């Protein structure tokens, strides 16, 4: 059981890469303990906003995480996991590497395994713990990413299209996890393209296309006319921005790259940020 999750405030947040404006005057609040979805077109700035929250992109304006007490654990689930599928790394090896801080040669043989067992069981992957990561399907790998975000129990979860590769069984697992997080008071910021799932599962939804075009309860804002406006208002093209080709390539690389730790240091476990990494609160 976690302590209560934080409230997140975006107050006039903007982000520019080269000559391209990615985010403009983003203003929204994610209430403590809520499941808040971000929807919008590709290139509309959703992943960039997530990276600004995680401290991976410089931004204008104010971005604050208001904890109810001492800061808790921040969990992060990326869209996908890029790795050499030929590596002889099992699911268990991956979980131990991404959820434990101590070097392998300093760990006791079963250190942390109870938490790993419980997390894999929650996502239906306990029976595949010894399978090689490269042999898993895309949906199974995504479930492993969900599992590693559960260790330690997060108070804030940032999910960047976690349903992208899930199969039907994975959808059921994800829905169950969302219910558990809501029950436990975890704050969830969820980037998602599946509007049907958002309509059923989110407490609140914001439409983002460089700026916030709507924000409210799903039943109120997921109306055809609002969605048409959201997905029709395209971000400006490279020609409109009059940027150089090199700027366009740098932009695409920066936005599509997975979130990385600041200072070029060792990457923290994919599913969490240590307290020393929490530099997003100003």
Automatic annotation (TrEMBL):
Keywords per UniProt: ATP-binding, Cell membrane, Membrane, Nucleotide-binding, Transport
Domain ABC transporter: 8-235
Region entry Disordered, spans: 238-282
Gene3D superfamilies: P-loop containing nucleotide triphosphate hydrolases
Xref: Pfam families: ABC_tran (PF00005)
InterPro entries for this protein: AAA+_ATPase (IPR003593), ABC_transporter-like_ATP-bd (IPR003439), ABC_transporter-like_CS (IPR017871), Metal_Ion_Import_ABC (IPR050153), P-loop_NTPase (IPR027417)
Compositionally skewed regions (Low complexity) per UniProt: 247-258
MF GO annotations: ATP binding; ATP hydrolysis activity
Name of the protein in question: Metal ABC transporter ATP-binding protein
Organism field: Pseudothauera nasutitermitis
């Amino acid at each position: 059981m976690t302590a209560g999750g934080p409230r997140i405030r975006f107050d006039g947040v903007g982000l520019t890469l080269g000559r391209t404006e990615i985010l403009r005057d983003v203003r929204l609040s994610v209430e403590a303990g809520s499941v808040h979805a971000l929807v919008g077109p590709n290139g509309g700035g959703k992943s960039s906003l997530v990276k600004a929250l995680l401290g991976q992109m410089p931004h204008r304006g104010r971005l604050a995480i208001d904890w109810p007490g001492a800061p808790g654990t921040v969990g992060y689930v990326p869209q996908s996991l890029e790795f050499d599928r030929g590596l002889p790394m099992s699911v268990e090896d991956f979980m131990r590497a991404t959820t434990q801080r101590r070097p392998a040669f300093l760990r006791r043989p079963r250190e942390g395994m109870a938490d790993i067992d419980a997390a894999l069981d929650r996502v239906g992957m306990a029976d595949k713990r010894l399978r090689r990561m490269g042999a898993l399907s895309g949906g199974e790998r995504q479930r492993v990413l969900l599992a590693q975000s559960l260790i330690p129990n997060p108070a804030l979860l940032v999910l960047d299209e976690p349903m992208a590769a899930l199969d039907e069984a994975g959808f059921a697992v994800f829905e169950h996890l969302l219910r558990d997080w809501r029950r436990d008071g975890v704050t969830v910021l969820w980037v998602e393209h599946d509007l049907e799932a958002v309509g059923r599962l989110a407490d609140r939804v914001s439409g983002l296309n460089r700026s916030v075009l709507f924000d409210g309860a799903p039943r109120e804002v997921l109306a055809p006319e609002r969605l048409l406006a959201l997905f029709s208002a395209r971000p400006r093209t490279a020609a409109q921005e009059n940027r150089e080709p090199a700027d366009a390539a740098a932009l695409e690389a920066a936005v599509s790259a997975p979130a990385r730790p600041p200072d070029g240091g060792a990457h923290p476990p994919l599913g969490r940020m240590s307290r020393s990494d929490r530099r997003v609160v100003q």
